Amino acid sequence: MTEPSHARTARPGAVMDLADLHGSLSDPALLSMNLLNEVAERYPDAVSFAAGRPDPGDFAIEDVHRYLRTWTAHVTGGAPGGAEAARTRLYQYGRTKGVIQDLVARNLATDESIHADPESIVVTVGCQEAMVLVLRALRADERDVLLATSPAYVGITGAARLVDLPVVPVDSGSGGIDLDDLAARVREAREAGLRPRACYLVPDFANPTGLSLDVPTRRRLLDLAAELDILLIEDNPYGFFGDGIPPKPTLKSLDEGHRVIYLGSYAKTALPGARIGYVVADQPVVRDGRTVGTLADELSKIKSMITVNTPPIAQAVIGGRLLESGFALRETNRDATARYGKKLRHLLDGLAARFPGPSPVTWNRPDGGFFLVVTVPFTADDALLAHSAERHKVIWTPMYHFYAAGGGLRQLRLSCSSLTPEEIDLGLDRFASLVTDLLERT
Question: Which stretches of 248-391 are assigned E, i.e. beta strand?
């Protein structure tokens, strides 16, 4: 006879001990990403210098529908069965590598002089997935480590933590990367029995520092990578956005030895909501001395177990945008680039007006991009950020989040990309009030 439900002994519900879950879930890098994504939503009345989001400009909902129609017309092409082919590509899963690699390749050739075989490209769910795929492939065993310029984008340190790949910081120096320090870190790692696989960096207007590598440094870095026998992971979300300066060649466009794995994204240059990124991984892969494909082929195997494929509808939207621009997104972003440059200059001028020298508050002067770094005479941590948001109604990003090995406690990052000049002025007034309040207490 079945015991009545009311008479059964209550059993405790499942409880998960964080110590029994993957160690990355307690890692500061993963906590940082959520903080940076959500802090503005917690304080809607505050002016936020935190997010590096693109300016929405004059984007309209109808654009999405038009891009889809443009891509569909391109795929249909008037050929017999074209309409059915377009429908299948749009509504079905599609290839794991993607359905717009040929268009991405044409865009790279037009804008960056990168001439990539479409089969060496994997279209990803944002650039973040591309990072995870690459690091998962490179992490073969416990000897492997990743080098990364420090301070570094928290997305790369978090992705490395997810695949148990330790990160060795390399000093950014004053120009984006200290080549002597890179060589020293590689030597030290090998002397310790480790295997340095690659060095991650953002050569143009880096997040978080805003620093860029000059052309001679780019060439020396490629030579050094060959000498050290390591790969370079080049992440390039901000390269279009120089403030009135000629674009510098990407590392990948200068790469003659398949040393560079190139990460790209259409979040800043086309449409962030589409969440389309990509990786160019043309490194030959051999087995038993015989070439069996490229690194892109191997990345697609991993992707098939993570996201299966990147949504074809989102790819088609970006494909339509590329077709309408004639694959020249740099040209079609000219107005946006001018706006970002104006905002950056407004931010720099506003800091100078509110903190005239000599001042204990200083900052760097990037020549483009979304970010700059401010050095302050007090600890700029999460507790102060909460105080700043609640009492002074201004949000910024503590720089210590970007240092894997510690540092940056008296620095903060400001981003002005999604703010109007009026919002920048209001935010700076509030930031100056915060600084005055803190200095008066000491």
Answer: 260-265, 276-280, 284-287, 290-294, 362-363, 371-375
